[in-house]
UniProtKB/TrEMBL annotation:
Its cofactor is pyridoxal 5'-phosphate. GO terms for molecular function: pyridoxal phosphate binding; transaminase activity. The lineage of its organism: Eukaryota, Viridiplantae, Streptophyta, Embryophyta, Tracheophyta. Belongs to the class-I pyridoxal-phosphate-dependent aminotransferase family. LL-diaminopimelate aminotransferase subfamily. It comes from the Eukaryota. One of its GO terms (biological process) is systemic acquired resistance, salicylic acid mediated signaling pathway. Residues 126-486 form the Aminotransferase class I/classII large domain. This is Aminotransferase class I/classII large domain-containing protein. PANTHER family: AMINOTRANSFERASE (PTHR43144). Keywords: Aminotransferase, Pyridoxal phosphate, Transferase. HAMAP family: DapL_aminotrans_1 (MF_01642). Transmembrane segments: none annotated.
Length: 493
């Protein structure tokens, strides 16, 4: 039986090898004869766990009508191994042990795998994605015109330029300083233009090295934790947490602002406001507390303001609006969510001159060295687009893109609120954080995908504090957001 089951599966999945075990329950007084087995009612549950399959996908195949005169099949357990290269050759290089500590896949590729599996199960499903926070609306003309002009100029002798300054073009650095940090004491030389905030988060981790302890909001954008693991700052993963990371719980009970007195000994505090995934923004008083805490403990805040322009009330847009922040904080930000630059790739990080390591050495000098070593400057075409974003026309265009996503956010919030859910975020961020008390986030994710063909993001993917929540992103075409809302209203009516 082992042989026939394996060859059946191998013919369906030729690239996979299978270890199939089948338990057959029969009447106690007899064993199945070999001749009976091939024609038995073969109801098999198969678990595939490989990079190409969603973890624990299962399907059932039934070949023959059940015949009570035949022995009935019990549990059929099948474990596949991923396709292996048919080679005995391996290099002498051992795997980076920190990589082995990482849990499963990075959240968003895992969601993409689950979506693909859903589509292969239901090829005609009209799946709407309100999952990954990727923008959907076209980049305004003012930006694309500037970029195409710059691209065309590259074909001329006068307009050609090769490598630029690793820190970014002076004009763009200056425009970022005057647009977002006017009167905050941030100079253009404090600004490092980059290919996006996510890349800068990793560069900052390289800057800090493996001997620091980080604290993160729980839940938080996964890049802080994963880059910390990769750098070797953490221990193993136990009880849904990595050892040597401080998880600062943010939930409705504390209005999504952590109790700082619970942090023990963090060197670097990653703090995202408005927060992805909870959608909540910290108030001036809260950020003042955070800066004072960092000062008292001589720690560094890495402040992620990738959604700052979504703030609709008087919460600060930058950590540098808080007195004393320049001595304790770095800020990273991005054009991704303001101007649809997720694919164009352009962001920046501010490292003030006032920020010093314990020995008095300026952090900015080391960061400059990291940038010059790991990066060769943002694309000159993208930087032309960034400069256009900060022109008066570009600022207006960004604002109207943001307003469009705000309206989407309102539609999603209204939908869940009307259905009786407790809904958080949304006001200052393009994310709605919906509570499903007592339920597993992945189960809710699966239910919404299965029954409404809508992709969301399970809260637990952002840390243990996200369990019981899902994040619904407002990035989407209007008709999709409306249709998703209709389907969700049907599902949870
Ligand atoms: C909080 C946060 N920071 C950074 C990023 C990444 O931004 P970028 O596209 O500039 O790499 C994201 C993207 O979703 C984010 O949510």
């Amino acid at each position: 039986m082992r042989r026939s089951g394996r060859s059946l599966l191998s013919s369906v999945f030729p690239k996979y090898s299978f270890d199939l075990s089948l338990s057959v329950s029969v009447a106690a007084d007899r064993s199945p004869s070999l001749s009976e087995l091939p024609s038995m009612d073969a109801s098999m549950s198969v678990s595939l766990n490989s990079p190409h399959f969603v973890a624990h996908t299962s399907f059932t195949t039934s070949k023959l009508k059940h015949d009570t005169s035949r022995p009935s099949l019990g549990i059929c357990k099948c474990v596949s191994s991923p396709p292996t290269e048919q080679t005995a050759y391996a290099t002498k290089v051992s795997r980076n042990a920190n990589m082995a500590k990482l849990q499963a896949g990075y959240l968003f590729p895992e969601i993409a795998r689950r979506r693909a599996a859903h589509l292969s199960k239901y090829p005609d499903a009209q799946v709407i994605s309100l999952g990954i926070g990727d923008t959907t609306e076209p980049v305004p003309d003012v930006m694309t015109n500037a970029m195409s002009e710059r691209a065309r100029a590259l074909s001329t002798v006068e307009g050609y330029s090769g490598y630029g300054a690793e820190q970014g073009e002076k004009k763009l650095r200056s425009a970022i300083a005057s647009t977002y940090y006017k009167d905050l004491g941030i100079d253009e030389s404090d600004i490092f233009v980059s290919d996006g905030a996510k890349c800068d988060i990793s560069r900052l981790q390289v800057l800090f090295g493996s001997n620091v302890k980080i604290a993160v909001q729980d839940p938080s954008y996964p890049a802080y934790v994963d880059s910390s693991v990769i750098m070797g700052q953490t221990g193993l993963y136990e009880n849904q947490r990595y050892r040597n990371i401080e998880y600062m719980r943010c939930d409705p009970q504390n209005s999504f602002f952590p109790d700082l007195s619970l942090i023990s000994n963090a060197d670097v505090i990653f703090f995202c406001s408005p927060n992805n995934p909870t959608g909540s923004a910290a108030t001036r008083e809260q950020l003042t507390q955070l800066v004072q805490y960092a000062k008292k403990t001589r720690s560094i805040i890495v402040y992620d303001s990738a959604y700052a322009m979504y703030i609709s009330d008087d919460c600060p847009r930058s950590i540098f609006e808080i007195d004393g922040a320049k001595e304790v904080a770095i800020e990273t930000s991005s054009f991704s969510k303001y101007a649809g630059f997720t694919g164009i790739r352009l962001g920046w990080t501010v490292v003030p001159k006032e920020l010093l390591f314990s020995d008095g050495f300026p952090v900015a000098k080391d960061f400059n060295r990291i940038v010059c070593t790991c990066f060769n400057g943002a694309s000159n075409i993208a930087q032309a687009g960034g400069l256009a974003c900060l022109s008066p026309e570009g600022l207006k265009a960004m604002q109207s893109t943001i307003n469009f996503y705000r309206e989407n956010t309102q539609i999603i919030m209204d939908t869940f609120t009307k259905l009786g859910f407790n809904v958080y975020g949304g006001k200052n961020a393009p994310y709605v954080w919906v509570h499903f008390p007592g339920r597993s986030s992945w189960n809710v994710f699966a239910e919404i995908l299965e029954k409404a063909n809508v992709v969301t993001t399970p809260g637990s993917g952002f840390g243990p504090g996200g369990e019981g929540f899902i994040r619904v992103s407002a990035f989407g075409h209007r008709e999709n957001v409306l249709e998703a809302s209709r389907r969700l209203s049907q599902l949870y009516k």
